Amino acid sequence: MSDIYRVACAAGFSGDRLGVAKPLVNALIKHGGPGCLIFESLAERTLALAQLERRQNDQLGYEPLLEEMLEPILSACVQAGIPIVGNFGAANPFAAAAVITRLAKEKNLPELKIAVVMGDDISGPSYRKIIEAHLAKPDQELLAHSQLVSANVYLGAKEIADALTAGAQVVVTGRVADPALTVGPLMSHFKKSWEDWDFLASATMAGHLLECGAQVTGGYFADPGYKDAPNLSNVGFPIVEFDAQGNICVTKPEGTGGVVNRLTVTEQLLYELHDPAAYLTPDVVADITQATISDLGNNRVKLKDVKGHPKPDSLKANICIDGGWLAEAEISYAGHHALERAQLAAQIIRDRIDKDLDLRVDFIGSSSVFVSDSGEGPAIIPSKSFEDIRLRVAAAHQDRQLAMRVCREVTALYTCGPAGGGGVRTSLKPRLNTLVALIPRAEVKPSYVFYKEEHSK
Amino acid sequence: MKNHLVPLHHIAHARTGDKGSRSNISVIAYRKEDFPILQRELTEEKVKEHFGFRHPSAVTRYDLPNLQALNFVIDDLLDGGVNLSLNLDSHGKSLSYWLLSMEIDAE
Questions:
Q1: pTM
Q2: A84-86 and A35-39 as β-strands: parallel, antiparallel, unpaired?
Q3: Is A273 helix (H, G, I), strand (E, B) or coil?
Q4: pLDDT (tens digit, 9 = 90+) per residue, A287-324?
Q5: What 3-state DSSP class applies to A390?
Q6: Of the candidates A258, A229, A185, which has an alpha carbon nearest to the alpha carbon of residue A39?
Q7: What whole-number distance in Å separates Cα of residue A203 and Cα of residue A17?
Q8: Interface of B with A (CB under 8 A)
């Protein structure tokens, strides 16, 4: 019998649908073989937002839905020996480990071995010079004049693999490369060399297919009549079956909605990928130019012939800085001449504040998403038949009061603008700007420890 | 005048991803035999022109014949991207459907 390891993914971003882990865990238990459950919950900005939260309260800054994610499946995973790996530590992995420890106690589970991966956070003062040295010149200027919110290196899979090999039942990480959540368990199970580039590349692309959750099982896919995905209200999250040769089979739990076919897997394989010959990760440079996808039917798709090249010398770091304020305000015009009245309202706003702020104006229902920020569009607004237009005005500025003017001026359209405007909504939010630096490996010191309660004191 | 112009979405599907202000849009032929049409019709120049109103600085096309897919990497398409753009869709996720609206000669 071939040695198959299964990785199931129960989250594709922070805020993803809850309740999807149970069918995955049930499927893993039913198969009876080795496997693990992963949660991918960090997008480019999630960590910076978590860092802001941690500053307000040093017990926060981890994934806000952590308890809801783990509560339904923690006991089953512990009893069945299914490790859980997640980057749900975000900006505060030790606080996340404390929450999981408490949850286990509440469920009368024996004391868990929870590993915490460290070393990704380089926001401390000792790293400042290293970060500056590896930023592009204009970004150095930006950093010099802004508040640093967060700085995190994308770590690889080694510490996750080592922690699992040492018996971790849960691995909590902050920023790791998304595929590392999958590569770690596969490397721990198959005991391959960290220079087996083809194997690492296969494991990485398996992780890449899993890391957005339902995006490979029919989510972000349906286009009725062209591409159908049944029962998306109960879409199944993905499971990858992986063998020692690096062959990948993508599937989902029986009885769940969505679809896994050649189309869903091809779309997700290329998602957020640039040069298909060189997908850069901390562990390997993956190459899918020779890869093939075959649809085995019954929601099973095979990917093979992924190749790998030696890992890059530096690690990507995301540096988040304060980006001022984003103001957005909306008002609706409906009935005859809706578009003309909305256009008049936009002109009034421009006359009053355009000199102080770069405004973006959208006529939702007629011309919005495809248009550039400077107002150029693919020559639409084709007819006068639009009778339900929502005007949106947006602007950003370092000065909170100035940004706030967008909200005030749009609100004033109630009484000072065209006829019949209604339903004003405004919002003012802090913005974050992200810079990218490539940090030499030697400057980064990843490690892991098993969590003890004194860690969070 | 060409007689065989059809919207790209009749023969291909697509997905958009983003990193900063750079977008990647994969275009995948439904049928293997239509892949050469994509290769012929979807040149880097034509894609750049189709997105002209967004002023992309560069378009790079990668061909994946095994997957009957093209991957377009389009620089500076997103007015600064998810952090800086004022667009409702600051990720540019809807832009795959703008590319799929392009009329191509499917003969």
A1: 0.95
A2: parallel
A3: coil
A4: 999 999 999 999 999 999 999 999 999 999 999 999 99
A5: strand
A6: A185
A7: 25
A8: 9, 13-15, 17-20, 22, 24, 26, 28, 30, 53-55, 62, 64, 66-69, 71, 73, 79-80, 82-89, 94-95, 98
